Amino acid sequence: MKFPNFKDLILFEDNDFIVINKPPFLASLDERGGSGETNVLRLAKQYSDDAQVCHRLDKETSGALIIAKNPEGYRHASMQFERRKVNKTYHAVVDGHVIFDKLLIDLPILNDGNKNVTIDRAEGKRAETIFDSLKYYKHYTLVECKPITGRMHQIRIHLATQRAAIVGDEMYRGKPVFLSSIKRGYKLTKGEEEQPIMKRFALHARHLIFKGLNDQDIVIDAPYPKDFATLIKLLDKFDA
Fold first, then answer.
1. Which residues cross the membrane (predicted)?
2. Which CA distances in Å does 199 have to 56, 167, 177, 203?
3. What CATH code would you report for 6-239?
């Protein structure tokens, strides 16, 4: 897969940090077992020698990702994540018409390795997310997700517990969106197999606020990538 030039991904840069708008299908770090494939860390190190990725996004998730350019920056960001001082906001498109109004989901998550994550009240680690519905469609809802903790797959599994799986998230029973399901009279060319509008789950890290080494707020707004923007545009047009 061809990825854009690293420079073109940059939303913010100073002496200590780079924030990029991570494209989908690009891993944040080396995967276990080191397949040697391109990832954010490798691209960042080509751009800035001492670069370290400060947190991770799932491979399919797009959006704002903080990279430190030096050890001081990395320590500074890590402490903020540890103390839950980083303000993170994601957007997701979910199945169905769901009404969330500052809904706090507080369900512990157990990560038993192998990318397998479950809700486990006895053994799980505390996990909290706040959900707000932003926009209603006939068959879908655009949801704002604010994770307070940072567990693996947290937003995805918390939404699934509310019967509001993210579209395209097969791991949590989310179904892909096809144009034929929202556009009246849509006809496929004979012999053609319809592709989903988005070939991944619809989750994007939209906003981020953290403090630089000078203690000033760094406020990031990451525009939707092409596939997410296309999904929203088509829902606006055919499912509103």
1. none
2. 21, 10, 9, 12
3. 3.30.2350.10
Bridge pairing between strands 203-211 and 103-106:
unpaired
With CA atoms as reference, report the closest residue to 139 among 174, 101, 95, 172. 95
pTM of the model: 0.95
- DSSP string for 175-239: PPP-HHHHSTT--PPTTPPPPPSSSS--EEEEEEEEE-TTS-EEEEE-PPPHHHHHHHHHHHHH-
Domain boundaries along the sequence of the chain: 6-239
The closest of 60, 62, 74 to 20, measured between CA atoms, is 62
Can you tell me which residue has the tokens 């994540």? 81
pLDDT tens across the length of the chain (240 residues): 677 799 999 999 999 999 999 999 999 998 765 567 899 999 999 999 999 999 999 999 999 999 999 999 999 999 999 999 999 999 999 999 999 999 999 999 999 877 789 999 999 999 999 999 999 999 999 999 999 999 999 999 999 999 999 999 999 999 999 999 999 999 888 888 999 999 999 999 999 999 999 999 999 999 999 999 999 999 999 999
**Two structure tokens written together for 167:** 């579209």
Strands 87-95 and 62-68, sheet pairing? unpaired
Residues recognised as catalytic? 58
Parallel, antiparallel or unpaired: strands 62-68 and 203-211: parallel
Q: What does the alpha-carbon distance between residue 195 and residue 169 come to, in Å, rounded to a whole number?
A: 15
